[in-house]
């Protein structure tokens, strides 16, 4: 499954480790949130990066206390119509101050790419067979956003535009 | 852009280059999405929400395209364009909806990109008129004109229009989300049957703020909106809404489409828990990032500055003379004309409910005429009301007679605003894939039965609303007399409810008795009216008050005793 970053296919240094299989100690590994809960002590002293994958129904609050242990949080979209993940990313960033990578996984479509970026995702694991060009297009086809982005310091951004224009 | 000069018109938000660029980009995006669907890159399942968010529904017989009319306000130029599109791509008419929008019922999929292009020429679009996103925010159709207005709801509805447009976090909500704002002492926007209902008010210092009701809604489980916060200051109102939506987006049910609205979440969590979640989010969100600074509000408010009213006498002799000589006109004035805040002006409601007509339908010729009349008599601006009529908000009293004569000649002079003939009906089984029964023919039969304007006025304020299925798009729950179409083994039946109330004293009507057939329904309505007239203490006792006093028994007896 292609990894998309900044509208381009990128090399994926992470591997998702299915529950029950050994977690490699020498390279970045993503484990399920359930496994983390069950086996967290076994990751004490780990040097390689660790990532956690949240199922659609697992909200940001569940993982909040452990965020300093993870270099990546993968947020799963069970269906592209299920928009909980947008709030999960936003909460991770705004409420819990998470600064690591947030990756969208599961069923997401290029038409959602801008929303993903603007709610705090940094990468997308696009479904198999996706048209990579559509992801690139999606970044530029709408150039106007009426709400502030996460990193926006200007409150209510666009509503403000008229003040400058006079 | 060919709008008439800003100084000469009433308050309409005028697009700037950014708004225009945005709509243009969205049209182009949708064109590409259609191409990707046709190329098989998007599945039908993936394409459906995309097309819905562009206002395109697949109905029983054809595609339906729903055009956004933000808070129901538009210019004459825009209405003329809607008429042109209706002529070119539909069958010569359009249908005004209970969300103050307009829809075309006979659209071809392949025409939609061209239609969206034409709409963009007059700063219009079909965005977010459907789909599980925040829909067109509605407000009082008398906004900016009503004598009882405290806060101008358009200003905040426009802020919300921008705020909710392609909101990155809230475009894939569990279900659709409807917001209504009322800023007057009478609620003409039915705020307590919306997902979020806002009452705009002023505190003792004269500052604007909002009372938030959450979790109202009709459909198969009707709920009256619950008071979540008595006062949210103007500067916090986006933050508070953001908090509500974030709680809903995370916790709202997604396992069952019928339990996915926020009303069910509020009900299942309980009001106190829901409020606590919202307040926690709000406390965190309310920082500078979401602060609605007074200068932003002031800038938006400039768009809605009062039109250049002339200084006129309170009372118009021309109007009085015309009323004295033409009783039909006098009746129209008494029923369809409301008090304006500027001396010598009046608010005129154009009824789209002629006896025997289809509620909310207007022919393209009628739309053209209304556009002309809006330019001549109301600063080039008009409103769509949520009861599916058109309002010219700023008419000189001196010109009312002239206006009415032109309306009447075009079949638009019906005097029934708020009366029994002013029926709300959903499209029903004539158009809608969800419906169990037809709504329109019944509305036509009832309005024909009560065609006599004097009889209607004698009956007084009495709303009838008809829904063709339990989704309740016709708002039957909150009607004085509500009618719900049901299917019994392939035959259409109608269940009658009484005692609903759409105003701030919101009430859900009660079922009167067993469902009746279409022909029985008209007689049953007439029987209900007769029982009311026989029992009321006087002309000023409204139907709902008589009902409260005498109960269901006399009504039931009259309708069902004969069986």
UniProtKB/TrEMBL annotation, chain A:
InterPro entries: UCP030820. This is DUF934 domain-containing protein. It comes from Azospirillum doebereinerae.
TrEMBL record, chain B:
InterPro entries: NIR_SIR_4Fe-4S, NiRdtase/SiRdtase_haem-b_fer, Nit/Sulf_reduc_fer-like_dom_sf, NO2/SO3_Rdtase_4Fe4S_dom, NO2/SO3_Rdtase_4Fe4S_sf. Coiled coil: none annotated. The keyword Heme applies. Residues 130-283, 423-559 form the Nitrite/sulphite reductase 4Fe-4S domain. It holds the Pfam family NIR_SIR. GO terms for molecular function: 4 iron, 4 sulfur cluster binding; heme binding; metal ion binding; oxidoreductase activity. Residues 63-121, 349-409 form the Nitrite/Sulfite reductase ferredoxin-like domain. Keywords: 4Fe-4S, Heme, Iron, Iron-sulfur, Metal-binding, Oxidoreductase. The keyword Metal-binding applies. SUPFAM superfamilies: Nitrite and sulphite reductase 4Fe-4S domain-like, Nitrite/Sulfite reductase N-terminal domain-like. This is Nitrite/sulfite reductase. It comes from Azospirillum doebereinerae.
């Amino acid at each position: 499954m292609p990894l998309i970053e900044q509208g381009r296919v990128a090399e994926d240094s992470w591997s998702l480790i299915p529950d029950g299989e050994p977690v490699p100690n020498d390279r970045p590994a993503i484990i399920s949130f359930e496994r983390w809960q069950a086996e967290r002590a076994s990751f004490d002293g780990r040097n390689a990066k660790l990532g956690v994958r949240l199922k659609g129904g697992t909200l940001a609050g569940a993982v909040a206390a452990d965020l300093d242990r993870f270099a990546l949080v993968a947020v799963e979209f069970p269906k592209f119509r299920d928009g909980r993940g947008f709030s999960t990313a936003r909460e991770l960033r705004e409420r819990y101050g998470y600064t690591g990578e947030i990756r969208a996984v599961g069923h997401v479509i290029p038409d959602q790419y801008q929303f993903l970026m603007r709610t705090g995702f940094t990468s997308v694991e696009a479904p198999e067979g996706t048209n990579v060009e559509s992801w690139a297009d999606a970044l530029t086809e709408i150039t106007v956003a009426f709400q502030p982005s996460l990193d926006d310091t200007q409150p209510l951004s666009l509503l403000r535009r008229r003040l400058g224009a006079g | 852009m060919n709008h008439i000069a800003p100084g000469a018109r009433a308050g309409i938000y005028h697009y700037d280059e950014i708004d225009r660029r945005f709509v243009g980009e969205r049209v182009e995006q949708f064109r590409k999405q259609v191409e990707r669907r046709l190329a098989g890159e998007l599945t039908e399942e993936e394409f459906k929400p995309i097309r819905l968010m562009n206002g395109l529904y697949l109905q029983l017989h054809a595609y339906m395209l729903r055009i956004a009319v933000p808070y129901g306000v538009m210019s004459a130029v825009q209405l003329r364009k809607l008429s042109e599109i209706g002529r070119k791509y539909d069958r010569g008419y359009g249908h005004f909806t209970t969300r103050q929008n307009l829809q075309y019922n006979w659209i071809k999929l392949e025409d939609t990109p061209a239609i969206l292009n034409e709409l963009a020429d007059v700063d219009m679009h079909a965005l977010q008129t459907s789909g599980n996103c925040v829909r067109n925010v509605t407000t009082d159709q008398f906004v900016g004109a009503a004598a009882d207005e405290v806060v101008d709801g358009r200003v905040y509805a426009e802020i919300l229009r921008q705020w909710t447009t392609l909101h990155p976090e809230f475009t894939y909500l569990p279900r659709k989300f409807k917001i209504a704002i009322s800023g007057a002492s009478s609620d003409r926007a039915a705020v307590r049957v919306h997902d979020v209902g806002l009452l705009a008010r002023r505190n003792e210092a004269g500052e604007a703020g909002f009372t938030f009701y959450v979790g109202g809604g009709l459909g198969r489980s009707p709920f009256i909106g619950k008071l979540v916060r008595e006062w949210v200051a103007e500067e916090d109102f986006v933050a508070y809404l953001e908090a509500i939506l974030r709680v809903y987006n995370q916790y709202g049910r997604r396992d069952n489409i019928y339990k996915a609205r926020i009303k069910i979440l509020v009900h299942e969590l309980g009001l106190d828990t829901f409020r606590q979640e919202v307040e926690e989010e709000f406390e965190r969100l309310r920082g500078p990032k979401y602060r609605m600074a007074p200068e932003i509000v002031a800038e938006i408010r400039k768009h809605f500055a009062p039109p250049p009213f002339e200084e006129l006498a309170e009372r118009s002799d021309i109007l009085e003379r015309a009323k004295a000589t033409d009783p039909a006109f006098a009746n129209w004035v008494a029923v369809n004309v409301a008090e304006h805040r500027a001396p010598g002006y009046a608010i005129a409601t154009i009824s789209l409910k002629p006896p025997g007509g289809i509620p909310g339908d207007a022919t393209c010729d009628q739309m053209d005429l209304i556009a002309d009349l809006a330019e001549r008599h109301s600063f080039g601006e008009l409103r769509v009301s949520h009861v599916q009529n058109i309002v010219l908000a700023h008419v000189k009293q001196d010109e009312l007679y002239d206006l009415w004569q032109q309306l009447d000649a075009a079949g638009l002079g019906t005097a029934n605003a708020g009366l029994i003939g002013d029926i709300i009906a959903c499209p029903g089984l004539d158009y809608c894939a969800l419906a169990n029964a037809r709504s329109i023919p019944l509305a036509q039969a009832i309005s024909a039965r009560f065609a006599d304007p004097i009889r209607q006025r004698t009956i007084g304020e009495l709303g009838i609303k008809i829904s063709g299925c339990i989704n309740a798009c016709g708002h039957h729950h909150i009607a004085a007399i509500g009618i719900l179409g049901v299917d019994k083994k392939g035959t259409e039946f109608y269940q009658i409810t009484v005692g609903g109330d759409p105003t701030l004293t919101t009430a859900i009507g009660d079922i009167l008795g067993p469902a009746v057939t279409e022909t029985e329904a008209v007689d049953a309505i007439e029987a209900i009216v007769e029982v009311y007239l026989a029992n009321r203490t006087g002309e000023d006792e409204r139907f709902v008050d008589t009902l409260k006093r005498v109960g269901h028994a006399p009504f039931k007896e009259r309708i069902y005793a004969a069986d």
